[in-house]
Amino acid sequence: MNNVIKSSLAYRGVRYYLRKLKESYITSIWGKPRSEFMRQNKKKLAALKNKHLNQPCIIIGGGPSINKMDLNRFKDMVTIACNGFYLKMEELDFIPTYYTVEDHLPATDNKLEIMSLKETIKVIPYDLKHIIKPDNDTVYINFLRSYMRPKNEHFPLFGDEFEKKSYWGGTVLYMNIQLAHYLGCNPIYLIGVDLSYKVPNTVKKAGAVLTSTEDDMNHFDPRYFGKGKKWHLPETQRMQQSFTKAYHELKKRNVKLVNAGVDSQLKVIPKGKVKF
Description:
By secondary structure, this protein is of the alpha/beta class. It has one domain. The protein is built from six helices and twelve strands. A hairpin with a 2-residue loop joins strand 9 and strand 10.
């Protein structure tokens, strides 16, 4: 192992444990907020619990398959969208009920567009507060990224106490499933979860961070991770693991998780159509 690799691994290890310490500290004080801002945020987050009890929810992924669907059919339903979905909203008759981002790369690249969204509740990890600034429609959550190594057999954990903490699972949609469960939604439908990523040989690589030099072929809009946009190397096996974990955890709680998309390579989660 050369010195460059050793120094890279050492840096990543130090960063991981520093982040873990920071997250442990935030978790310890999360339930007893020390500022007026945090107290108000706690009230806003608590108000979401079971807000849509036993209502169906559509979690919208960014796969190209959503271009084959009439999303306007879902305008009167609870919907959760994320990342660059604002691009799709240019042709829709509705605004998603909730909007999320959990990766700092799309949060940074799309911050102006996401912060400008109105009439939707933005649910954002607290550690992205410096990127997605506070407003009346934004709620922050205690989102744990460094609670467990992905290679651990128990990864990922699933949060039943979303108001206290939620867990990273390698995809924003795992966070969104935990959010839907907190909202009391049942069943929870997934669409646009294609899991068919291709990494062009034209991307610029810096470790696990990729920078596009051309149009995005992996999402519903070529601008999604288009030229100049940064994204993380897609770990589809880890994503599958997280979706499977969510399915089994929700099944224990008598909550249905359904793959209602088309062209999806999701495994384990049963396929079905959205019931209106």
